């Protein structure tokens, strides 16, 4: 087996300082989705194997187990095999994370199993992904699960989709089969608001067009799957987004060296910030300006910076001495988040507990947790028909639907479709602390409700 | 590639045309975010600190997360009694430098009073679980930072950043919460605690590159040195009171280094001439063995060895 891509042997030591222009080696998070038996595990195994991310002892184990099971060649799917607990109990833990890297990029791959709990799994994997890698079996084309995968991808705001039409060897490398599948897939994708779709004809089992170009597809002029992953632009452009800075922690050393230091630690959820920028603190609405942006150097001393951008972790110092604590949001004064006590959003139910009208829960958005009541389960999304229908019995595990929530306090929130980080929320069971649902806020209603 | 400028000279730079983070900066920012989330949500967090490179990187990141304030967490070391002296010296020097509080749980205490018994193979790594859980309970720690990475092992690939444990420290795959966006749910009831893994998304190579970039000092056994070793189960082990070498095992002097640092009885050295961090990075990048496969006898016990230990409350 040959490979054209170098392993990451370049030693980029002391190569870049955060805040400096990109040094080149960036990070792409992607999530995989596929139906049962369409070869997803094999494809992921192939990506790891052909990028030399699989080491000898791992491969030895795979070959040993493959032989024990009477297979002739190493089954690369075993590289991503589950835990013994999963096999014994017939359960699947939602997402497994895989890592591989090339000379230009490091990848964090959220590998989501394509079985019954597809929604829960895929929502989880897609929440942090910038690209969804969706598999279709060339023999079966676009199936029901493909539609679900696209629906979830669109809902979670994943901007890029790579379609791997797998098992092309089993349809005789037929260009027409590939073209038909891509056409149908692209039509569906645009219905779900996904604009960027790239399709690659592959055989994960044989390795065609995964990392190395295939001799079997002379009619295909596009990149291999990995070449495509290498070229997808990473991240959104912080320069066009308004600042959102959820305060995590107040840094107050009160030491002899720093008796009066007071800074607000957080990670920019979106946007860019510079000293002198006017900001508003939510929910209080107090306005002030940014005095300084601090980050620690490797020796632990703190340095001021002229700019910070999402998703950097920094400490902000402000010009005025105002009361700010964890849960507050420091936002761009000219484009602040909306403050609301009534929130409508689309939720995916992740737990056994059914979500019903009048349920009392906790809502977590950014660093803020407030009490919430389900005012109304508005509807449920029927993924087969993509229609919204009433949900008189509430939303059960794996269901997707819209809910209207009444909140105990004002919360700063954004439309998820515009700002992913500050529009995302969790619904939490107050009694046992479990995460019940993942939510994506709609453009919030500024008219504050009556509260709880 | 351009040589990066020190941070303080950034203001003289023209504005960057695009705001893209280097992958190490991305991982650093994510880890710092995790440390601050724990500081904001928990009452009594603690960092597991063995002097191993992953725990050293954790402490480095934690310090950066709260600067200029001092580290707001104590450190916890589970001492197997089979430590490399270089690593213990490093541990104590680090604690002194940071002005941190160190809590040590001694496996030896448990052996002395009979609460634990020595294993036939002399390995003490599996014996760490009980002293660890007792230290967590005794100090009422509610969040315990560990240096575990998902790339290390199959059972870790599915570990959460916030991993909920019951009073027995057990990891129940069924009770793990889905983790979405960067919204970590740390709610727990009395008696439960949360293991937190800020390096979840780092690979071994990332850790080394970060050590190089930040110029982090490590215990010297991570770099090539001459050592009296003997071979057992295909690994080079150091002679010591813990029970090696046996009569049939001959010692010899070899140029070695350690890829992981654990209990002396089950942590093997690898033959290496990588004497500094840049040489180690080249070696790790070219290595065809995972670090656990190369150097950890405890993971070779069975295909599901790590999974079993995790379920029993191991790190």
Supply the CATH class of the largest domain in chain A. Answer: Alpha Beta
- CATH level-4 homologous superfamily of the largest domain in chain A: P-loop containing nucleotide triphosphate hydrolases
Number of helices of chain A: 8
Nearest-integer average pLDDT of chain A? 86
* CATH topology title of the largest domain in chain A: Rossmann fold
In the CATH hierarchy, what is the class of the largest domain in chain B? Alpha Beta
- Measured as a percent range, the helix fraction of chain B is 25-40%
N to C succession of SSEs of chain A: EHHHEEHEHEHEHEEEEEEEEEEEEEEHEE
Strand content of chain B: 15-25%
Largest interface: pair, residues per side? A-B, 102 and 88 residues
The secondary structure category of chain A is alpha+beta
Structural class of chain B: alpha/beta
CATH superfamily of the largest domain in chain B: HUPs
Task: Describe the protein in words.
The complex is a heterodimer of chains A (452) and B (315). By secondary structure, chain A is an alpha+beta fold. Chain A folds into 3 domains: 26-231, Rossmann fold (3-Layer(aba) Sandwich), CATH 3.40.50.300; 239-332, Beta Barrel (Elongation Factor Tu (Ef-tu), domain 3); 338-441, Elongation Factor Tu (Ef-tu), domain 3, CATH 2.40.30.10. Chain A contains 8 helices and 22 strands. In chain A, the strands form 4 sheets. A 6-stranded mixed beta sheet of chain A has the order 2-3-1-4-5-6, sandwiched between helices. Chain A has a 6-stranded antiparallel barrel with strand order 7-8-14-11-10-15. A 6-stranded antiparallel barrel of chain A has the order 16-20-18-17-21-22. The radius of gyration of chain A is 24 Å and the shape is globular. The model of chain A is unreliable at 1-22 and 447-452 (pLDDT under 50). Chain B has helices at 23-41, 53-66, 85-98, 107-112, 129-138, 204-214, 277-286, 291-295, 305-311, and strands at residues 45-48, 75-79, 102-106, 143-145, 162-165, 193-196, 225-232, 235-238, 251-258, 269-271. In chain B, strand 1, helix 2 and strand 2 (75-79) form a beta-alpha-beta unit. Chain B folds into 2 domains: 14-205 and 307-311, Rossmann fold (3-Layer(aba) Sandwich), CATH 3.40.50; 219-298, no CATH class. By secondary structure, chain B is of the alpha/beta class. At the A-B interface, helix 2, helix 3, strand 2, strand 3 and helix 4 of A face helix 1, helix 2, helix 6 and helix 7 of B.
